[in-house]
Amino acid sequence: MGTLLEVNHLKKYFPIKKGLLRRQAGAVKAVDDVSFSVGECETFGVVGESGCGKSTTGRSILRLLEPTSGEVKFDGVDVCKLSPEEMRKFRKHMQIVFQDPMSSLDPRWTVDKILAEPLKLHTDMTAAQVDDRVKELMEEVGLPSYHAYKYPHEFSGGQRQRIGIAKALSLNPRFIVCDEPVSALDVSIQSQVLNLMKDLQEKYKLTYLFISHDLSVVKYISDRIAVMYLGRIVELAKADELFAHMLHPYTQALISAIPLPDPHIKRDRIVLSGDVPNPSAPPSGCTFHERCAHCKQICKEARPEFKEVFPGHYVACHLYD
Amino acid sequence: MAERLLEVKGLCTEFKTLNGSVRAVNGVDFYLNKGETLGIVGESGCGKSVTSLSIMQLLPKGIGKVVEGEILFDGEDLLRMPEKKLLTIRGKDISMIFQEPMTSLNPVFKIGKQLSEVLRYHMKMDKKQAWEKSIELLKSVGISRPEMIVNDYPHQLSGGMLQRVMIAMGLSCNPKVLIADEPTTALDVTIQAQILELMMELKRNYDTAILLITHNLGVVAEVCDRVLVMYAGYVVEEADVNTLFDHPCHPYTQGLLKCMPKVDETRERLDMIEGTVPSPYAMPQGCRFAPRCPKRMPQCDTEKPELYDLGNGHKCRCLLYREGDQ
Chain A contacts of B145, Cβ < 8 Å? Predict the structure, then answer.
């Protein structure tokens, strides 16, 4: 399995401007030095709570947000160095599925128009070919083709998400960023969409970057998982390995906080105190130290290095120095 | 027998729409005992929130209306009670926590003002007493520096903090019944764990009965004593929490439990419930779950199932469990 995507020291800072002259008064470090790589046909899960920078990471990779610094290599090409025109052409290899299909589909366009748009922009298909492809795409995601002339509001949430997936698939991309694709859906619909995404991955040899706050969903779909906290990856491992031997205290708390659908299991839950700190003024050293039960002096002073503790299992925590 | 606080009998709620009226809740029966936590689970549109709004009589005026049934609280029917009397119960004896704490607090008033309003109205406290009690309440729900927080506006607090404020408000008059409508859905898992812990602690301390409305079966397993499963306006299964998770009877409940991805197991593929919830304008004639049901029988399309009693408080609305059919 070759490496398809390589992210090195990616940073995305949002400036905070103040005063009459809009001078920069600080920065929100939404993504702060994140590095990872994703193999071909792999599903790489990113989990974390709201505000941890998982969506910003996904969007910076696609340059929907311009990264502050860092390198994103897609199949050997440094995406950040491409000119706008080159980037526009390159986008057909990398697509995204958004969380809320209602706000990411144009409400005034019919489904066939939405799905035809990328084909018209990126390929030189004839009108008839475009029509066929649209029908094929709809079939592919399990929507009968008589829905083609309907507007997005006429569909249910699950169907809209299928349209979002069809749109992402239309140009045969190799890589799709899935930004909370099932978070707005009911459980019974969620499982349909997840299974569909797995089928499509197998069929088209797709690579997913799967972003979600729901650990059980991420565990189901991912090969490897990165846990993010306040703009940094704190732990990265194979999905099974992560759940069997979680190392970082934050991962442990996060996993123990999931309510399990079994009334007989009584667990010792690690309940974190307090909220996620303000990302514009993150705590010194390890950003988790204020909420951590194992906090030592060094945690307040030095940022822990992100390193390999077991083969393929990376963690950023001073407990494993 | 435990003291029965709230009893809902044959509740039917209708909404007026441009295409005629739609029945969102169809003959729901349940009771709530003192100190008990009853969960109502179901997917969006199954009528779980409408049930709670019907109890509180907070349905949008002129659009939603309870058309049949009784809601007995302490032996009195809330539906036939004069508005004035209802005002003394709502917020005091029965209070409610909503899903989105960000939108259910008034953005232009300070937290302290909103909390003391409840206390001044129901407990007849004066301004100063109410302000002090507000600080005390915030402390009891685990907010640090409550003296400062009372002077803050809602937008200055995080979602988890606001939900704590809502809980403090809900509990301010020591209610007998607390209705929590998706109290943790908008929150992160670690914050959800904090809030659930807090609700359970308060329940133990004050012996409050809780009606918890959620779509998350994990939350149900964790905190509820009994559970109602709703589908398309009907209660399809009722059982105590252990029975429901060990021996789910209705095919819908079975499907729901199977299609959830779980952290403590690895699966190649998730089970699915095919199709979608039927549109309220085109409900199936017989059992409303029949078109999606893997155990569908010919009679399911024509006959409406009743809620059959399976013993020990376990009830199921499915023709599979009808006497004589088995």
Answer: none
Q: pLDDT > 90: what percent of chain B?
A: 56
Nearest to A271 among B197, B267, B271 (CB): B197
Size of interface A-B (CB pairs under 8 A): 123
- Cα dist. B60→B13, B22, B46, B57, B99 in Å? 12, 14, 18, 9, 17
- pLDDT tens track for B188-198: 888 888 888 88
User: Residue A250: its pLDDT value, please?
Assistant: 94
Give CA–CA dist B161/B194, Å, rounded: 10
Residues 69-128, chain B: which have Cβ within 8 Å of A? none
Selected residues 160-219 of chain B with any CB under 8 Å from a CB in chain A: 160-161, 188-194, 196-197, 215-219
Residue of chain B with shortest Cα separation from A269: B193
Let me know: does A164 contact A104? Beta carbons within 8 Å. Answer: yes
| Continuous segment of H or E residues that includes residue B134 | helix B127-140
**Strand, helix or coil for residue B159:** helix
* Disruptive mutation site among A186, A212, A213 for chain B (greatest number of B CBs within 10 Å): A186
**What's the CA gap between A170 and A121, in Å, rounded?**
11
Task: Say which of B160, B219, B256 has its CB closest to residue A187.
Answer: B256
Per domain, the residue ranges of chain A are 3-320
Q: Do the beta carbons of residue B47 and residue B230 sit within 8 Å?
A: yes
Question: Tokens representing A195?
Answer: 């299974």
**Could you give the ipTM of this predicted complex?**
0.83
Model confidence pLDDT, tens digit, residues B227-281: 999 999 999 999 999 999 999 999 999 999 988 888 877 777 888 888 888 888 8
**Residue among B222, B255, B270 minimizing CB distance to A259:** B222
| Distance in angstroms (rounded) separating the CA atoms of residues A244 and A307 | 19
Cβ contact, residue pair A188, B255, below 8 Å: yes
**What number does CATH give the domain A3-320?**
3.40.50.300
Q: CB-based contacts of B32: which residues, under 8 Å, 6+ apart?
A: B4, B5, B6, B7, B38, B177, B209, B211
- A248, A271, A295 from A287: Cα distances, Å: 13, 18, 11
Reference B156, options B194, B198, B102; nearest CA is B102
Residues of chain A with Cβ-Cβ distance to B219 below 8 Å are 259
Cα dist from B325 to A301, B239, B299, whole Å: 71, 22, 11
